[in-house]
Specification:
The complex is a heterodimer of chains A (204) and B (282). By secondary structure, chain A is mainly α. Chain A contains 8 helices and no strands. In chain A, helix 1 packs across helix 4 and helix 5 packs across helix 6. The longest helix of chain A is centred in the middle third of the chain and has 31 residues. With 282 residues, chain B is of the alpha/beta class. In chain B, the strands form 3 sheets. A 6-stranded mixed beta sheet of chain B has the order 8-9-10-3-11-12, sandwiched between helices. Chain B has a 4-stranded antiparallel beta sheet with strand order 2-1-4-5, covered by helices on one side. A two-stranded antiparallel ribbon of chain B has the order 6-7. The chains are: A mainly alpha (204), B alpha/beta (282). The interface between A and B is medium-sized, with 23 and 30 residues. The structure holds adenosine-5'-diphosphate and magnesium ion. The site of magnesium ion has 4 residues of chain B, from helix 2.
Amino acid sequence: MLAAAPIVIQLALGAMALALVLGLLVALARISKSRILRGIALVYVEVMRGTPLLVQLVYIFFVLPAIGVNIDPVPAGILGLGLNYAAYLSEVFRSAILSVEAGQTEAALSLGYTPGKALWKVVLPQSFIVSLGPIGNYFIAMVKDTALTSVIAVTEILKTANIINAQTFETTQVYTAAALLYLLISLPLSRIVSALEKRARIHV
Amino acid sequence: MSDEVIVSVRDVHKTFTVTKTPGMVGRLRGTRKEVNRIEVLKGVDLDVHKGQTVVILGSSGSGKSTLLRCMNKLETIDSGRILVNGHMVGYEERGGKLVDEKASVTAQKRTDLGMVFQQFNLFLNKTALGNVMAPLQDVKKMSRPDAEQHALENLRRVGLLDRKDNYPSKLSGGQKQRVAIARALAMDPSVMLFDEPTSALDPELVEEVLAVIKAIAAQGTTMVIVTHEMQFARDIADIIVVMDQGVIVEKGTPNEVFFKPKHAKTYALLKRSGLAVEPPAA
Ligand SMILES: Nc1ncnc2c1ncn2[C@@H]1O[C@H](COP(=O)(O)OP(=O)(O)O)[C@@H](O)[C@H]1O
Ligand SMILES: [Mg+2]
């Protein structure tokens, strides 16, 4: 079962990377001047948040092949988790960006930054600091949500536990071990997140 | 003082449009959006010559900030022209009309104007030194060592070398404003714009900031300063202009304006700040 732990880490890291990049893009789209971009981004967020992650994973793994898109279990899991969490992270980024005072942008503009550069060099770094805590918490939640990928044949911790249980019928021990393993991964993460949050709060 | 005009403002008009969307009840009643137009600048003319210090006085809401912000296009203008070093900032003229120019061109021209805000607006995630260095690296494309050296020189000008590694949260209001001044100065602008630089400060911190601004003025920097500090205005200004309800109602040397105010508004302003003056001849 311990051997399944790296898969969980891989799923969570891969999906988080995807969610961070896509989440930022969606957040920027939601605050952009273009009505069309704003609309697309809003629909994306509502759909992703309004349907269960489990259904989204099943959709990617079992429905997409019907239109000729076959994705292996692990990449499918990363894609599903990443697309879903991107919606939540986009909201984190959006509110963090809006929380940066307009004066910061005005100061940058007055110093000769273009609007894009002011966003990239002045506003986003500050938003990111504010976002660190929520991002960390979503990362921990995601580690636990990797268990859902067991239904699309990813041999992560829960799936491995199911297999061992079917062979040994040691139900209590097997699932207790599985739960402890998740705890073992997420507890240190929680510690890291609180430390990051504390450091970030010092200046901004 | 030279004849060279750094900032030329000609017949500038500016209207703010405030749309008030009706609340839920109003919407149910079928109330329409309410559009309020306030004309904030009603034909302003002003020349700022090289090396000159122009002080703008006027009661709150008279349009002083808006005028400054129009100079570097933080606000748009409806009509008229503002030239900085002979160029419009933010616009090109097409068939007699003002059209927005490319953002990158505007950004480049804005480096001709340094602006100091009432609320300092230091970058909160950077140290004092980091604040001064950032635009040198990001906008002027200086190398890191060059930017650092230049930033340190400018922090020295405002007397804050010893605070260079402090974040804004660890600086007093007066120190923050001095860093903001150093940051703007370091870009080597043709003119410095100050919008009530001491209005957000505790009284005991006002003097250190005014002293820095005076020192910079003494070095020949061209400046436009909005302030309510009358004594400071009198000491530092070459020209004082008084604004009221979107127009310049009085303009002259400190002696002319302080001792022979022509406009009732100027008189009221001086009197309110405890300065004994003769009322204008009616
Ligand atoms: N962004 C804005 N939207 C609407 N009205 C504004 C805005 N900024 C300023 N005003 C109005 O314009 C007038 C002049 O404001 P301002 O230039 O800030 O005056 P001052 O700096 O002399 O106090 C005021 O009536 C103010 O309420
Ligand atoms: Mg003002």
